[in-house]
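Posting for a labmate who doesn't have an account.
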Amino acid sequence: MQSTHRNLPQLLSDARRWFDDGLLAALEAAGAAPVSPTQVQLFAVLDDQGTTVSELARRMGVTRQTAHQAVHGLIAAGFLEQVPDPASARQRLIRRSRDGQRAHQQAVLILRRLEEQLAGRIGREHVDALRAALEAPWGQPPAPDSA
């Protein structure tokens, strides 16, 4: 008999998927250009001043090639642009275009509404406790011998 007890990373992944699915559905209903979950994740980790593709890949936990594909899809859709990196003549920064900034602001509003819907379902106190636990400093992951 298989255990139904799910570990915390699985639960966190499901929670993220709940928000991603709600966000994508709301964007589609609003008539926004279709984007993939990877592109949504990329937008979430992108700095306002711009970020290199390598750094985006690291933050997303994907290969540089996957991040590169997501970036170029969003550039083609008009949501991102490449600009020279003032700190390195060899690198380019990826940042939101004007359309990308509008889409980002729309996504922020949708995510706030989703959080309010979640609070209506599970209670404001649970959402606040979840936020507090996730915002608390966790420190570095434990060393392999202490896990």
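Reply:
Got it, the structure tokens are right above this. The first strand starts at residue 80 and ends at 85.
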